[in-house]
Write a structure and sequence with these properties.
The protein is of the alpha/beta class. It has ten helices and twelve strands.
Length: 287
């Protein structure tokens, strides 16, 4: 099918559909920073981000169909890519320009802003292992996400190389998951002394759960969050993190989208790499 073309007399838009709970979007800072970066780039072209939040991937695909039929957006940014992801093929069929964001299986048709998810996980494991931690757990995002799979493979490989035990439990980025899974991990007979979280919201909930169990952080337990945010810096103690320049990530995605809209060959782009920032939640393993 051929979509109606966007009316060039009207300001343009880059579409972003998030298949997730609106409640989670309200507490997780990542996407607000990401969208701010996109907007900063798009404003130079009198464009903006059209954000739509839906509960499922099927409804996300339905939104793309409506946008293509109505000519409502010039392009879309596709996030949280999964195994056997149908969205790239649907977008090609709709003729809707798209930029894939993060980790993906190779797709020669669509430009991608790639992310190195493995390197930062290996770095986090190495830092905890150097501090003497022998059981290192990770509270992940959904395992269906490609970037979760890459992080898990990197954690298991890094722990094997360091001679330490890897423990992986699946979360969903919510505070509830952070509380429940941290509590379960810390009640195990062979409990981890270091925990890495796949986002900041779960890490902050995990810190509170550890305190509720009477553990001192970092004397008894070291924690590392992902996606540094104001939440991490305001925690007590402030959370050590794998910090990403999320604002710059958004700029990179918008620049890739503009290249695609203009019909220019898309430059290979990488999002800013996550790097370790030491704060108050990492220290030597308890003796």
């Amino acid at each position: 099918m051929t979509p109606a073309h966007h009316d060039r007399s009207q300001p343009g838009a880059l579409g972003l559909v998030l298949a997730r709970s609106t409640r989670l979007l309200g507490v997780e800072p990542f996407f607000m920073e990401f969208i701010t970066g996109m907007e900063e780039c798009l404003v130079t072209r009198d464009m903006s981000v059209l954000l739509h939040v839906v509960p499922t991937y099927e409804e996300e695909i339905a939104a793309y169909r409506r946008w293509a039929e109505g000519g409502l957006v010039d392009a879309v940014a596709v996030v949280n890519l999964t195994e056997s992801d149908r969205r790239p093929a649907v977008l090609r069929k709709l003729g809707l320009p798209a930029v894939l964001v993060g980790t993906r299986r190779d797709d020669p048709w669509l430009p991608t802003v790639r992310t190195d998810h493995g390197g930062p996980v290996r770095d986090a494991v190495a830092r905890l292992a150097e501090l003497g931690h022998r059981v290192i757990a990770r509270v992940t995002g959904p395992r269906s996400l490609l970037h979760t799979q890459v992080r898990t493979a990197a954690q298991e490989e890094a722990c094997r190389e360091a001679g330490v035990k890897a423990v992986v439990v699946e979360g969903d980025y919510t505070a509830e998951a952070g509380t429940r899974l941290t509590t379960e991990l810390l009640r195990r007979a062979s409990r981890p002394t270091g925990i890495l979280y796949d986002n900041d919201v779960m890490a902050i909930a995990g810190l509170a759960a550890a305190k509720d169990l009477g553990l001192e952080v970092p004397a008894d337990l070291s924690l590392i969050a992902w996606d540094d945010s104001t939440l991490c810096r305001l925690a007590s103690p402030p959370l050590s993190t794998m910090t990403v320049d999320v604002h710059r990530f958004g700029v990179e995605v918008a620049e890739a989208a503009l290249e695609h809209i203009d019909g220019r060959p898309a430059a290979e782009r990488w999002s800013p790499a996550a790097h370790f920032v030491h704060r108050g939640t990492t220290g030597p393993a308890p003796s």
